[in-house]
Amino acid sequence: MQQSPIVLLDATDEERVDITFNEYITRALDEYRQQYGTEQGLELWADYLMSSINKIRRRLGHTLHKTLQQLMTTALRQHREHNDPSAHKAWIHRLLLDYYDPMYDYQLGKKQDRIIFKGNHEQVLSYLQDTITPSKAETLYVASCHCTSSSVIPGRASVIPAKAGIHSNQFSI
How far apart are the C-alpha atoms of 152 and 19, rounded to whole Å? Predict the structure, then answer.
């Protein structure tokens, strides 16, 4: 994958937040509730979210970590008390823009010569369907970026992992 060609998927910040929300809030909570029941599932899932943000505390830096913790705590409170998960979008937005985007900007900056295509969801899907054979799909590197800068969220074309806004059900080639 280190020498693979790169396809950039343009996505708005709102699209990226929605995709991440659906994966890490809606789907993940559903899975926890199915396995542990409604109340225990919610509490175990909430613990998982908080421990996940704590695992990257050093990379986030003190200020961003504290901000994300506060936003997450507020979102979890609203979620528990009003069954309203929408406040999770605030911490997801900050995490994507303030943590993942700079990290991927840096990484993509070193790989500009490997970019072979850039477009929106439909354009990338069409490009992949028209030009990529299954054997090539194994080595193609797909990245998502928001439209206002070169920030990216990488994944593989053959199986695009659920990482910060990219999900396996988005492409089938």
Answer: 14
